Every structure is written in C-alpha cells, then in structure tokens.
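Narrative of activities, Objective 1.

The group set out to show that a structural description can be obtained from nothing but a protein's sequence at a throughput compatible with the screening campaign. Below is one input-output pair from the validation batch, recorded exactly as produced.
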Amino acid sequence: MRISSSRALLGAALTLMLGGCEGSSPPAANLEASQGGAEGVPLHSERGGIGLEWQDREVGALAVVPVDARRSLAVTDKAILSRFSLRAVMDQLAAQSGVAGLTGDAIFRQLWDTQNTAPGVFGPGFPHCTDAGGTLNGFPYPCRQGPGSEGGQAAVGAPININSYSAIGLFNRFDLAPASGQDCGEHRIVFAKTDTTTPGRNFLIFEAVLPNPRADLGPQGCWPVADFWSNLTAEPNITLRGDKLKDFYFNGLVYKYADTGLATPFGPVLHIRNLGNNPGKHGQIRTNQFISPPWLLREFKLEQNCFGCTLVARPQTVKTNPSGDLFDPANPSATAANFRTHFRTQVAALAVNNLNLFNHDVPDVFNIGQSDSQTPGTRDNYVARFGPGPSAFHTAIQNELNLIGSPLTPRDIVARAQALSCGGCHQRSNGALLGGGLTWPSTVPSGFVHNSEFNDPLDPTRFELSPALLNVFIPHRKGVFENYLLTTAAP
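Output recorded for this entry:
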C-alpha cells in the first residue's frame, strides 16, 4: 500500500477538489461546527474535523488509494476481536494511573457506581446519580440502581461483571481529525455484554483521541497513523492483522520523521490521557445501556488530578444532545430562549443536503446527561416537542431558510437535529424523512445499535454492522480517508 511520491504530486491537483477549500466551502456555520468549542475542544462525538470538509466529490481519472473498509475502517472479525478483553483494557488504564492497588475491575465497577444513589458502593467523594439533586448540567439524570440494573454491576461479585463483555468492533475514525492536525482522530473499541445467562443488553465504547506528536507538521504529522490503518488492507493474513491491531491499541506506533531523524512515539490508543484525562478533555467512554429500561446512552471521561491520585470515570453531558424541552416554543425559561436564538444560527449547517455533512454546533450549556432512544414523546423527541406550529420559533427558522433559499421546512431542520442526537441516531430517527429527499438510515435489525453482538448475517465470522454504517457513513469515511492518503506525503 505504499504510495509516497505520487501522493505529493497529486496533492496540488486535488486541493480544489477537497470540500472546505477555496471555491468549495460549505456554509460558514458548518465550518464553525466542525471546529468544536473553545480552543478546539470538540463538542460533538460523531461529526467534525476533516470529515465535515469532505464533500463526497469524485476524484475522476486520478489514481485512488483503495482501502478495504472492513480491514482499515471497521473491523468486526471475531478472530481479531477475541484478542481484546475488557479486563486487559481496564487493567492497562489502571496501571497508567499510578494509583497503588487500583485494578481494572475497580475502574469498571466505579463507572457503573455512578448510576447508584450516593454513597453507592464506592462511598462519598465518588460521582453518583444523586449528585446535584439528581441532575447533570441542570437537566434530570435519573438513577439506574440495584440488582438487574446498570448500577448493580458496581457490586463485588455481581452476576453482570467485567467478564460478561466481549469486544465486537474496532473503528478507525480518522475523519474526526481536525484540519489543524492537533490530533489524529478517534480510534475506538466497542465492547458488548455477550453473557446470555443474565438479562439485558449493554455496550461500552472507548473513543480514544490520539494526540499528534508532531502537531507542528499539521495533518501531515498524522501520516504514520493513516499509513498503519491503510496497510491493513494489503495484509491477507488475519492473524497478522490481529497482531498489528493489538499492538497499535495497547502499545502504539514509533515513527522516524525525516526532518529530525528521531524515533517519535505515538503512544498506545488505550491510554487514560486519550479518554478525557487531558487538558482539552478530548476523548470519552460512552455507554449504550439496556440492562434496565428505557434504552439510554450516556458519556463519561476519565479524570485524575495528579499522578498516583484516584482515577475516576465521571459522567459528562452527551454531546450534540440539547434537551428536547428547549425545542418547545412555549418553554418560557431563559435557557430555552437562549437556545432558540442560538439554533437559528445553525439552520444553514443543518440545511446542507447530505446525510454525512449536515450538522449543528450545540454549546454544552444546552446538552443533557443522557439520551433516550426508546421512549415515545419524551424530552428527547425533538420533533414532538417542537410541535406543528405556528409559533415564533417556527417563523424564525423559516426566515433563516428563506435567507438561504432552502425548500426545507422548520420541521425538517428539527428532524435533522434529532437524527444527530445519540437517541435519534440509535433508533428514534430510523427511517425518518428529513426533507430534501433524505431519509435517515437504520440501525441493526435488533435495534438501538450500529455494531451489534450478533453475527453478521452474510458472514458469521464477523459481528454485525448496521445498514446506516455499511451504506451511508462508512463509504463517506472511506472517501475522507482515501483522500487524505492521496494528498499527503510521508513526512
């Protein structure tokens, strides 16, 4: 898969074919959304960086760097994933903390203890669902406690425990790398509860943001990471691919840059600093949980104030998930009024008529601590809260649509915002009509997830991926990744 000098030669030819470049820019609001919050801290987990700038353009007769998406972007081969255990991941994070006696099992149980009322299993000083009066960021954060629930996993000897989970997917989200080259995107590993002797389904997703050790080179500094993933396509031996992926996630890469001649390490993907324990709070652990109803999605970051001090998995807001109550035109609160004013500025970005590119930036003050993908009519059902109108909010959105000459309706814009929420993407918006001829694609047939613990119906040696991933999102990510490979020379 080595293409180096040809990448450099093609770079100039392809520059104007990249979305986000001069002569081919998406709306300004869309570019702002791709940059995230203050100092580049991302406020969304699924859309951003170079993935929002790529406009799905054809590269014509120019050479293509072909990657196999199921080897270089979304790996669900059971023979590879059997090498990754949740205990090994958690034990590595515990060792990196320097906390004497801390085990991976303890981190796992403490994360789930956040679902219990204080003092829970771990006692005062650790986060629990009753902190701040049962709220997070000012919005309700209900408990899921007791045996047969998520919080029940915090107990020593609980029937659902760290050994109840298996790895079901490795994902290369290079498309989330910022154009500045500050980091090299997210590299994810998904664990699912595969123990069928206990009820319920449950998922843990480690979404590690890999720092760029040569950020001075911009995106080019990330070339060794892209090169690693692309070379998996050309490796026919699944055992060797598994060896390389395990080494990448647990040990990292080392690359000798030509300008310094020094061997520069990309640390392991699975590191506490890549999962929130860094100054910018990049990276997160997310849950997709249904041991007890309703089906919820939540987010956590690892937090440690000093080396050797206690490492804590702390609940966070779920990004790009404003409270649905804020869409209610009759909501008289100041927060709702501020949200409606802000949302008007995002109409142009949401009106972009591409399933992979429409987007909106949600300041964290509006985000809730969980996303419900199941319950009808709840606060997470933005379209229901928005209502049929008329209202001043409907009129304000329509005015913004008129300014950009869009044929979409205010309801279409809110439906697109709902599709980008965790609950919307994971079930609520399945098959939803979004205007402009767009229909939101679906999760797996069993519902609620895009990477399931069940067999791929076409290949039982792999775990299942959703139609949304296979037909819409992964092809876009493939285009972004191949375009980077085409236009970037080895540093």
